[in-house]
Structures are given as C-alpha cells and as structure tokens.
Design a protein that fits this description.
The protein contains seven helices and 17 strands. By secondary structure, it is α/β, with parallel strands linked by helices. It has two domains: about 130 residues, Rossmann fold; about 110 residues, LytTr DNA-binding domain (OB fold (Dihydrolipoamide Acetyltransferase, E2P)), CATH 2.40.50.1020. Strands 2-1-3-6-7 form a five-stranded parallel sheet, with helices on both faces.
C-alpha cells in the first residue's frame, strides 16, 4: 500500500499557497510535490507529476479550475478552495472530496484531509485486493473502462497497448479510444493473457496481435510498431533479449 499522497496546490495568490503549505505540514501523509499560480502552469505540472490530490482555487484569473479539470485525463482527488460559496454546487458535481471557504483554518483543513485519507485508503485497499487475484483474463474477457465520460464494456483483445502514467495507466484501444485507470503495469501484466500481451519496457505492455513490425535498433534495443501508429515503441535491451529468446528470433 502506498503510504504518501502526492499533492499539488493551485492558487493565483502566493500568500495563500504559502499558508496552505504551512498548514499541510501537519499531515505526514500529504507530500506537496508542486504548486502553480495559473491555468497553464497548473496543467503542465499535473501532467508531469500526476498527483493523487489537487487543492485548487476555483477562480484562476478569469478561468476556473473546473475548466482545468476538463483537460485532465484521469481522476485525482480534489479539494476546492475559494472565497465564493456559490461555487459549491459546481465543485461537488466534479466529485470533490471537500470544499473549503477562505480563510482556511487548520481545524477545517484537518476534516478535509481526513476525508482524503479515508478515500485514499479505500482506493489502496481495492487496488491491493485486485493484485491478489491470480485469475487471468482471457482474450474475450469483458472489462469496464472509463472514457468519453462514461463506462464502456471492452473485450481484452481490443486493448492494443498500455502505458504507465504516474500512479495510473493509460489503456489504448483498437477503436482509437484511451482510458486512464488507477492500476499498475505489474497488475495488468498479472491479469492479461500471457500469450497475447508482452512487456517491452518497464512502462509499456503491448498486444502481440496489434504488432505490425519489430526491428533491431541501436545498443541491442529494438523498435516495435502497432497497427497504424507511425511512431515506434522502444523495446529496452533486457525485454528485447527476453522477447527474442521466447520467440526464437
């Protein structure tokens, strides 16, 4: 179980970010990995760090953090911070863990972090339980993936490749869609049919039936092409050696 919760603070007022950072020092589980003062910097930071928790001021110099959330391709936990109580309904429409009005007190923040911790423990427990399951999926096994703002039934063989994305994974499908899931490459590898999916990099799994070409590359590495994707995937040295050994290339 992952103990720490990575957090990013987004507020256009530096003094408020400083106060929040100071208050968050009271919670050992929360690790602030970055802060941003505007929409663009916040989006770049979130894409780089994939935090577990966002503490967001709703008003960002004319834009809102609700607009920001529409650009994020996964579902972190959210605490909204604002001076305007009329934003509360919109905040909870986005499944916010909590909604804090400025000025923020330690007592009120403590209650919000307790909610975050409870939700985090539930997610971690669920994830750990899934990793304990040793039943393999078959190619026609049906799973639920979230994309286009809804849950969709997908057969395992429709997955073309999976990439690590911080604490999440990006699952790419043959129909061109992509779903971000709270899962690990290791867990996917344990569940997917081993005669169909292979690992080519510590952060990448591919469906062999989607592979169109494999070629040798520099320094004993390889490159792999999937369907109509013109950009090759790197096969790292160790995984390329294992692939050639297994399939006697």
């Amino acid at each position: 179980m992952k103990e720490s919760i990575k957090a990013i603070l987004v507020d256009d007022v530096e003094a408020i970010r400083s106060v929040l950072k100071k208050l968050l020092e009271n919670f050992e589980k929360i690790v602030v990995v970055g802060e941003a003062s505007n929409f663009e910097d916040a989006l770049n930071l979130i894409e780089e760090e994939t935090p577990d928790l966002l503490i967001l001021d709703i008003d960002l110099n004319g834009l809102t953090s609700i607009d920001l959330l529409s650009k994020i391709k996964y579902d972190p936990m959210i605490i909204f911070v604002t001076s305007h109580s009329d934003y509360a309904i919109k905040a909870f429409e986005h499944n916010a863990v909590d909604f804090l009005l400025k000025p923020i007190s330690l007592d009120r923040l403590t209650k919000a972090i307790e909610k975050v911790s409870n939700k985090w423990e539930n997610v971690q427990t669920t994830d750990a339980s899934e990793e304990d399951v040793d039943t393999k999926f078959g190619p026609n096994h049906v799973i639920l993936l979230n994309y286009e703002n809804r849950l969709n039934f997908v057969k395992v063989h429709e997955i073309t490749h999976i990439e690590a994305f911080g604490n999440y994974t990006k699952v790419y499908l043959s129909n061109g869609k992509m779903s971000v899931t709270y899962n690990s490459i290791r867990n996917w590898l344990n569940r997917l049919p081993e005669d169909m999916f292979i690992q080519i990099h510590r952060s990448t799994l591919v469906n062999l039936t989607a592979v169109t070409k494999i070629e040798k590359w520099a320094n004993d590495t390889g490159r792999l092409y999937i369907n109509d994707n013109k950009t090759p995937f790197e096969i790292s040295r160790n995984y390329f050696f294992n692939l050639k050994k297994k399939y006697k290339m």
